[in-house]
């Protein structure tokens, strides 16, 4: 027997709710690490994977402007960005 009941994550009836209303009631979450990666990628005009390589694997950007952007966004001096 199939269960035709919609999932109800709010403990409220959702039958008359719009999709937009449902979306607006979803809990707000923050993912600061992911947001930071997206911001750097947007500012530097590079892919998310490129930014992850810079951060997680210590690969230094080839372009000077990217180092400047990273320093500006983080407030970390250039010489300390990849210092272990």
- Residues in helices, as a percent range: 40-55%
Helix-strand category: mainly alpha
Please identify the oligomeric state.
single chain
Unreliably modeled segments: 1-6
Q: Separation of termini?
A: 60 Å
Biggest β-sheet: count, sense, barrel? none
Number of helices: 4
**Net shape:** elongated
Strand content: under 5%
Question: H/E element string?
Answer: HHHH
Q: What is the averaged pLDDT score?
A: 84
| Whole-angstrom Rg | 21 Å
According to DSSP, the number of beta strands is 0
List the defining traits of the structure above.
single chain, 84 residues, mainly alpha, elongated, disordered N terminus
Topology:
Elements (H helix, E strand, L loop, with lengths): L18 H7 L6 H13 L3 H9 L7 H11 L10
Descriptive overview:
The chain is built from four helices and no strands. It has 84 residues and is an all-alpha fold. Helix 2 packs across helix 3. The protein starts with 18 loop residues before the first helix and ends in a 10-residue tail after the last helix.
What's this, in brief?
The chain has 84 residues and is mostly helical. It contains four helices and no strands.
